[in-house]
Design brief:
The chain contains 16 helices and 20 strands. With 505 residues, it is an alpha/beta fold. Helix 9 crosses helix 11 and helix 11 crosses helix 13. The longest helix is centred in the middle third of the chain and has 24 residues.
């Protein structure tokens, strides 16, 4: 059930682990009536804690079995500054015990209705044994109390997923292999990862270097709006900030970047199709290395977690030469956990960061062209690219011109590895709210152009025209982040905790 991150390079900054609250609900009157029941339920709670610890830090209050315990638990979770609370419905409980928890602590709550066994032993089950399996019984009561108190809640139902049977049990409790346990724990993991997104964004600094590409109205966003809805801080940067770092770059730093390029990229020859796409010159590669070293210096100095950038100045000025070396360094930074988005697209930069936090990549993309013979749509951009999710080594090509932009330099040609992918678009609606647009597909082994751009052929569950119309109808930003794996359910949970509308195509 673990989701392994795709990181071939050591991240520059670790993403924050979420702080997860946990308690088990029960009825205090039972403990003296049914010896061993309390300890059994505490053991179940410990099992849940141990599993969640894989993805986040856990503050386990233990049993909430009366109203006083609920009050104490609410204060405890506030002290622990939790991002999310799992309320384990371990046996029957009265709702007056759990309601105070969430009236005091406003962290989102998810009720866990996890039955220990797939079937009780009908012939031998006693009342005390049955009470260890009746966690679903109070969930309607909990739901009613939360609803009437105006407390949003979610419920995950399934099997507990033990890989052993407690000595006290009268039935087989080994359920880790069953789909009901696998599905429930997949949902629990996704919510923990979603909480990691929320916590990390609230502590993130996004650099905005230069400006937006003039005229791309879909990219323009209000920095205050972005901070108010996601918690990110936007640090406005100038080209002179980067140039300052360029002047400090050492030859040792240039050599280190050159070694990274050798390890993670293939150097192209001349393109047989496009006269502007040629083998990078030694001078172009050296300049890309120097600029990449300066870019990493800037990220470290400004303590950045993401970077949106674009520069379009007067022809022939020094900053134009500086921006000509951007793509390689920004691709390296993206692979190091600092996603970089071109054309000043801060919203897509945010989408890329979300993909990065949950360990699914997140490469800068836009619609390129449809292949009606293969039934695929090509998505990509002129850089940067997320090296960690590449199909083989990305290729570096020298471009005589950056189409639609000034200057020339080295660009990345690559495609995302074959298999399931998910597009995560982040757009802004007419009322100023962020909206996620999500679509799952399959990256194929189809051909791509040799023009120095990232490109991945994607087959969706709709034909290209039907897909286009549904995607366009949602008024997307024309860029999006490409993640590996089918992640729609995960992104739904991220949207839930961020209170952002989401549409799945």
């Amino acid at each position: 059930m673990d989701l392994q991150p795709f990181q071939p390079i050591q991240p520059l900054k670790p993403n924050l682990r979420p702080r997860i609250g946990l308690y088990s609900g029960g009825l205090k009157a039972y403990w003296s009536q049914f010896p061993g029941l309390r300890e059994r339920l505490v053991e179940y709670g410990q099992f849940i804690e141990n599993h969640i610890k894989v993805w986040g830090d856990v503050a386990n209050f233990g049993l909430v079995d009366c109203a006083d315990a609920g009050l104490a638990a609410g204060d405890y979770f506030n002290r622990e500054n939790v991002d999310l609370i799992f309320a384990h419905s371990a046996t029957y409980l009265t709702s007056d015990s759990v309601l105070p928890v969430h009236q005091i602590c406003k962290a989102p709550v998810i009720v866990l209705n996890l039955q220990p066994a797939a079937r009780i032993n009908y012939e031998k089950t006693s009342t005390g044994e049955w009470l260890a399996h009746c966690g679903a019984c109070p969930v309607p009561e909990i739901s009613n109390a939360f609803n009437r108190a105006g407390i949003p809640f979610r419920v995950i139902s399934g099997l507990l997923g033990l890989d052993y049977t407690p000595a006290i049990s009268l039935t087989n409790e080994v359920t880790s292999h069953r789909p009901e346990a696998i599905r429930a724990w997949h949902d629990i993991r996704d919510y923990v990862l979603a909480a990691a997104v929320k916590r990390t964004l609230q502590h993130s600094r996004f650099g905005f270097l230069g400006n937006n590409y003039s005229g791309m109205l879909d990219l323009y966003s209000d920095f205050t709006m972005l901070q108010s809805q996601t918690g990110i801080h936007v640090q406005i940067l100038e080209m002179c900030d980067l140039d300052e770092q360029l002047q400090l770059v050492t030859e040792a730093e240039v050599t280190a970047v050159a070694n990274e390029i050798e390890a993670f990229f293939e150097i192209s020859g001349d393109s047989t199709a496009d006269p502007i796409a040629r083998r990078p010159s030694a001078e172009q590669l050296d300049w890309s290395c120097r600029v990449a070293a300066a870019q990493e210096r800037l990220v470290k100095k400004q303590n950045l977690d993401g970077l949106s950038y674009y520069y379009h100045g007067a022809p022939g000025n020094a900053y134009e030469a500086l921006q000509s070396g951007f793509i390689v360094g920004h691709s390296l930074l993206t692979a190091k956990g600092i996603p970089c988005a071109g054309e000043g697209d801060l919203k897509t930069n945010l989408a890329m960061k979300i993909c990065d936090i949950v360990g699914t990549g997140g490469s800068f993309s836009e619609i390129v062209v449809a292949d009606y013979l293969d039934g695929t749509i090509l998505l990509g951009h002129d850089g940067p690219f997320h090296i960690a999710i590449a199909d083989g080594k990305p290729i570096l090509r020298g471009l005589g011109i950056y189409h639609g932009k000034q200057g020339s330099g080295v660009s990345v040609e690559a495609k995302v590895r074959r298999g399931p992918i998910t597009l995560l678009g982040l757009t802004q609606t007419a009322d100023g709210r962020l909206k996620m647009i999500v679509s799952e597909g399959e990256a194929t082994d189809g051909a791509i152009m040799q023009i120095g751009n990232t490109q991945t052929p994607i087959r969706f569950n709709l034909d290209p025209d039907a897909y286009f119309e549904k995607w366009f109808q949602e008024a997307p930003t024309h860029h999006c982040a490409m993640a590996v794996g089918h992640q729609a359910e995960l992104f739904k949970k991220v949207a839930d905790l961020l209170n952002i509308k989401i549409v799945v195509i």
